[in-house]
Amino acid sequence: MMQGDLVVRKSYGGDVLFRVATIEQHTAILKGTDYRLLADAPIVDLSVVKDEELPTAARQARLKANESTQRMQEQREQQAIQRELLRAQNQSQPYFEVPGKVLHLDGDSNYMKKSMQLYTQMRVPAHGLYVHESQMADAVYKLLPQLQPDIVVITGHDGVLKSRSQNDLNNLASYKNSQNFVDAVRIARQYEKSRDGLIVVAGACQSHYEALLQSGSNFASSPGRVLIHALDPVYVAIKASYTSIRETINLTDVIHGTISGIDGVGGIETLGKFRVGLPKPKTLAGVKATV
User: Binning pLDDT at 50, 70 and 90, where does residue 163 land?
Assistant: First the structure.
């Protein structure tokens, strides 16, 4: 077994597909390939998996991810058609679109790349950066004034510690990285106190949902302390980016549009960040124009 191998844990019935991050003596540190889970396991408990032998759970997760992306794309197209029909009825001037800008901080470089690919596919202006969870508060402090995003995503890996006291899920010390996420959210709220001024999406697998909301997140994981899909925070950010500033983000729609659902992601009423302008300028750097 080597660093980078795809593996499953025998004792868990091969429920989650991992990639070996590091090996320390007889223990391997694992990162989920589809879920934002950080775990460790004895090497003897691991079984190497080939790409063509993906477990059923991994195949289902990827199928759900494709379905969510397709559904989001269809919703965006329907919204564009509705705006176009309204413009034609009013015989108004050609307009241009300004979706909300995203700053995405990710504790996993592979997830960050996948997230940026989805932002590009959905035409969301986004700046992505791989940052270790322990450094996220510092990164938020430095980057928010520089980039001035409308939405910030603070995510990576998390999980409930095996060594925690039984049923002690209210203690931040029972989580691998929830404290780091909470610290970063607090810095974001020091920068912008209004939850409509800056939308914060925070957390990963099994994160302390209540603590993240209390520290200032608009959306957070995980109400049911379940595994969340790697792209769930991205779906929420995209929904926020393309919801009009005159409307609140539809909580039911955005939560059930994620792969992990109501146990994986929750949030509070929040105004969207999408704007329409007119007349359409001949050139507008960094903004997608629509005729």
Answer: confident
The whole-model pTM stands at 0.82
CA distance 9 to 42: 9
Q: Per the structure block, which two tokens stand in for 92?
A: 């108004």
State pLDDT tens for residues 57-108: 656 666 666 666 676 666 666 666 565 555 555 556 677 889 999 999 999 9
The candidate with the shortest Cα–Cα distance to 154, out of 210, 108, 122, is 108
The Cα 233–Cα 104 span in angstroms is 9
What is the SS3 assignment for 196?
A: coil
Identify whether the C-beta of residue 255 lies closer than 8 Å to the C-beta of residue 267: yes
Q: Let me know the angle formed at the C-alpha of 98 by 93 and 100, rounded to the nearest 5 degrees.
A: 155
Strands (DSSP E) along the chain, which ranges? 6-9, 18-24, 27-32, 38-42, 46-48, 96-98, 102-106, 126-130, 151-155, 199-202, 219-220, 266-267, 275-277
